[in-house]
Amino acid sequence: MWLKVIIVVLFIGVIISLSSALVFLMKDVGNPRKRTFYALGVRITLATALIAAIVYGIYSGQLSSQAPWDKKLNPHRVDITDPSQAPTNRRETDK
After folding, report:
1. CA 19, 25, 28, 30: dihedral to nearest 10 degrees?
2. Is 34 domain-assigned?
3. What is the pTM for the complete model shown?
């Protein structure tokens, strides 16, 4: 649960850093200040932390794919409680 909160906070931080860099870019035209570059550094750091959190979540098993096409690629992740997804041992020719 906390990992998902961290991922959302990092994503919002990336968006805020991106928008602040846009504001700095528009305000500092012709000005030698480097606020835009600092915002870029912050955004790169937050994006790296975001990717690291996602990779950690997938590696640790806290995050997984719920996509319908993933069930075909990874049948061991199928939800057994759903009878429509229950594995069968019959082949298509046996029906």
Report:
1. 180
2. yes
3. 0.68
Q: Which residues touch 4 (CB under 8 Å, ≥6 apart)? A: 57, 63
Residue 7 lies in a domain: yes
Residue 16's domain comprises: 2-86
Whether 52 shows a pLDDT value over 60: the answer reads: yes
By CB atoms closer than 10 A (0-12, 13-18, 19+), residue 48 is exposed
**What distance in Å separates the CA atoms of residue 52 and residue 79, rounded to the nearest whole number?**
28
Number of structural domains found in the chain: 1
d(CA 7, CA 84): 33
Residue 11 in any domain: the answer is: yes
